[in-house]
Amino acid sequence: MTVGPKGQVVIPKVLRDEYGITPKGKVVLKEIKEGILLSKTKIDAVSIFRLIAKSGKQAKRKDIHFYERELEERWLKAKPK
User: Which of 12, 62, 73, 79 satisfies CB 3.0 to 4.6 Å to 66 for a cystine?
Assistant: First the structure.
């Protein structure tokens, strides 16, 4: 690989596809005895959402009038006397 004028290198498409490295994706550079090790971050947003989805937990739904009551209570507290 060639290092560009801004210190950038291009990861070959075959390797990006193999390791799931996407544009704007995050990688980690680690200095090791032999040189520099580049690796994909272990946690990204997609991984987090996938873990949440696989957990089977569901968000609890609020009563449809919950937000109306909350706004009214806040308005009454903030209203000048």
Answer: 62
Tokens at 3, concatenated: 């290092």
Q: Which two tokens stand for residue 33?
A: 């005895």
Q: Which of 67, 65, 22, 60 has its CA nearest to residue 41?
A: 22
| Structure-token match 């995050």, residue found | 26
For 1-24, the pLDDT digits (tens) are 889 999 999 999 999 898 888 888
Q: pTM of the full predicted structure?
A: 0.46
Secondary element (H or E) of residue 13: helix 13-19
Q: What is the DSSP letter of 8?
A: -
Cβ atoms within 10 Å, residue 78:
7
Give the pLDDT confidence score for residue 7 in this predicted structure.
Answer: 92
State whether residue 30 is helix, strand or coil. strand
